[in-house]
Structure formats: C-alpha cells, structure tokens
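User: tokens in, sequence out, please.
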C-alpha cells in the first residue's frame, strides 16, 4: 500500500515537495535505526516483535496524508509521520529480510525472494488499480479521501498479521539453518559484548563492504522514476495505472531473477555471476532507453507540457509506459540479487540480521539523498545521470564479492557462537 501511494507521484498530492521531504525524513530515520537498533538487537527481539514495532507506522503516514489533503496545511505532520515511519520501517525490513534469506537454502532462496516480491508488490498493484478506479474522473490532481482510508485499513490489517510470525527456535525440524538459543537472547553483559563484536565483524567484512554501494543505490531509483518520470509526465489516473504496471513488472522481475538464481545445474558462484550479468546487461539497456525518454521529456517541459499525457494517447503514451514498466522490473532484479547474495554468504540469523540491517540502513540513506535532490528541484536529466552512474559504478565495485562466493555450503560464511 505504501508503494502504491508513493508510486502515484507526490503520494497523490498536487505539490510533490511535501511527500518528497517526508520521504527524506523516512529514509534518513530508517538509515539511522536499521543497523544500530534493529540489526544489532534483532536476536533479543525476534521477528514478531520487530514487525509489530514497525508495521503500524505505515498507517500513521497514510493518515497524515489524509489530514494534509483535508486541512491543506498538514505538511509538518506529514514530515513528522514520515520520520516515525522511518524508525518503524527499520524494524520491519530487518525482520522481513532476515526471515527471507535465513529460513531458506541454496535450492529455495531465489524462489523465496521471488514469492516475497510477488506478495509485496501485489499489494501495491491492487492499491494502484484501486486508485485508478477511485480517481478515474478526478480533475483535482489529488486522490480522494476514500483512497487514503482504504490504504489505512489494509495497512492495519497487515500489521496485525505479524503475530503469526515465529523465530528460528520455534521452527520445525525441516529448518536446517542456525537457530538462536534462549541463552544467547538473555540480556547480560557477556551477550551484549558479543553482539557488539559480531556486529563490527560483519559490518567491516570486506566482502560485505564491496556490496555496500549496491545497497546504497537500491532506493535511489524511486524519486526520479516516480516523481520525475511518472509524476511529471502523466495525468493522475494514468499515474495510478502506470503504478500498477510498475509493480506488476516488479512481480514478474522478482520471479524471473529468483528462478535464475535457483538454477540447480550450476554452483552457487556461477549463479552469482549470472545474476550480476543480468543486472549489468539489462541495466545498460534500460537506462539507455531512459536517456532517450529524458531528452524528449526535457523538451516537453521547456514547452510547459507536464502531467498531461493520458493512457488513451496512443503511441505518445506507449513508449514512456513500457520504459516505466522496465524500470519496475529492473528494481526487482536489483533488490532480489542483493537479498540473494546476502543469504548465499550465511545461514546464521544473527549474522544475516546485521547485514540486512546494513542493507536496510544504506538503501534508505541513498533514498534520502535522492528524495532531497528531487525536493530541491534538481533537473530531471541530472537525476537520471546520477541513477545511471550509480548503477554502473556499484556493480563494478561488487565484482570481488561475486567472484569469491563459495561454490557450496561446505565453506559457507562461519556462524556465530549461539547455534
């Protein structure tokens, strides 16, 4: 639902500056809390508590947008709600990512990521289609109040489902990965000291550090694609429709990348090379097409044409629509590979919580930077160039880690002392 909301450009508001600044607050707070709080102390809280801490903050943010839409002066509340959402999202995403990469093995990890990506983006797809229907005849440029109310209800329902999530120590015998023992979860000086040392050892592992530029880039794409491409080019109902197509592409892309990363005919290291190659080749092709679009759109903006293209506009609509679709697919390729390579290096939930915490800290840090640049009104072409440059550069930096992924489980990353 949150993705559906932000994917409409400006979170359904006429003035996208408020939502852009709220996204800065969200990403900055997530970056600060993900590693220092959620990642480091995951083993003491467990996934259920982390999800319950984080889930309700999404509904608060949607409620702040409803308040802003009705009162016309709710900017400070939206930004404050965005900051609270950032803190909650840190716990939410560390728990989600740790479950996904730990409760799996080499034969199932890619598909698990793909299935998650379908479920995750199905909500955004349905939300975007609902927005398309609810705002089909809207002339105001903002979504209706009922759209926000619907998001709030679904978000709260999803939050309550967190009570059914269990920790590794409660899983059945079918789970063969490391388990967190009750003794290691006790809050005492010995365990806290061990937690700090485990965190530092994981964070400063050079193989993990080579992945950090990719982690940082993971959320940079959104501000340009959602506000500059979708938000400035199409009218409201078409933005909602494009949002649905974007998230559908995410589902398809996640499944495709998951399938490729689960190939049984090759070893783990070869799968890593295949995943990296897919990212590099498709990235250069998609961003190359994006350059042509941005040159065209910049000329339109100089003529005063913005937020005017409707989905019924024929060929004028189809080209940008397909580009936006492939942008969505590429984002799923990128994040699926990031999650997969984290799980490929360790089956330990504590180690994975830290590296997922680093991922959940760095990607919103990049997102905060990108949303701030967007809010400052930096030209779309400059934002585009930043996106393409970060894509290519971070992939090159990740090569040493990709080439040193172990071929099988016999030499997988050492676990911590709490099995």
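Assistant: Sequence out:
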């Amino acid at each position: 639902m949150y993705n559906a909301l932000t994917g409409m450009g400006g979170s359904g508001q006429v003035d996208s500056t408020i939502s852009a600044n709220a996204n800065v607050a969200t990403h900055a707070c997530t970056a600060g809390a993900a590693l220092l709080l959620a990642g480091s102390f995951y083993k003491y809280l467990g996934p259920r508590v982390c999800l319950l801490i984080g889930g309700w903050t999404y509904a608060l943010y949607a409620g702040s947008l409803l308040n802003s839409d009705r009162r016309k002066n709710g900017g400070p509340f939206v930004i404050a709600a965005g900051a609270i959402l950032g803190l909650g999202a840190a716990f939410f995403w560390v728990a989600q990512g740790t479950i996904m990469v730990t409760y799996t093995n080499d034969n199932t990890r890619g598909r698990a990521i793909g299935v998650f990506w379908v479920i995750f983006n199905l909500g955004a797809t349905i939300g975007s289609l609902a927005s398309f229907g609810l705002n089909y005849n809207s002339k105001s440029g903002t979504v209706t109040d009922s759209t926000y109310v619907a998001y709030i209800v679904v978000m709260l329902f999803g939050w309550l489902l967190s009570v059914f999530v269990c920790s590794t120590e409660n899983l059945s015998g079918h789970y063969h990965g490391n388990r967190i023992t009750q003794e290691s979860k006790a809050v005492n000086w010995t365990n806290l000291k061990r937690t700090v040392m485990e965190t530092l050892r994981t964070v400063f592992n050079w193989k993990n550090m080579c992945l950090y530029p990719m982690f940082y880039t993971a959320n940079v794409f959104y501000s340009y694609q959602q506000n500059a491409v979708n938000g400035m080019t199409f009218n409201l109902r078409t933005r909602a429709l494009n949002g649905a197509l974007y998230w559908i592409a995410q589902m398809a892309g996640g499944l495709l990348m998951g399938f490729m990363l689960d190939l049984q005919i090759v070893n783990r290291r070869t799968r890593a090379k295949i995943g990296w190659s897919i990212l590099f080749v498709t990235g250069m092709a998609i961003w190359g097409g994006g350059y042509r679009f941005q040159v065209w759109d910049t000329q339109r903006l100089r003529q005063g044409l913005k937020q005017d293209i409707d989905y019924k506009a024929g060929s004028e609509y189809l080209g940008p629509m397909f580009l936006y679709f492939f942008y969505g697919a590429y984002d799923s390729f990128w994040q699926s590979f990031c999650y997969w390579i984290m799980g490929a290096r360790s089956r330990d939930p504590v180690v994975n919580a830290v590296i997922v915490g680093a991922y959940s800290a760095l990607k919103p840090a990049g997102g905060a930077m990108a949303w701030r640049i967007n809010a400052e009104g930096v030209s779309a072409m400059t934002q585009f160039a930043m996106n393409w440059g970060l894509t290519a550069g971070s992939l090159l930096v990740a090569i040493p880690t990709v080439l040193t992924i172990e071929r099988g489980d016999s030499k997988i990353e050492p676990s911590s002392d709490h099995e």
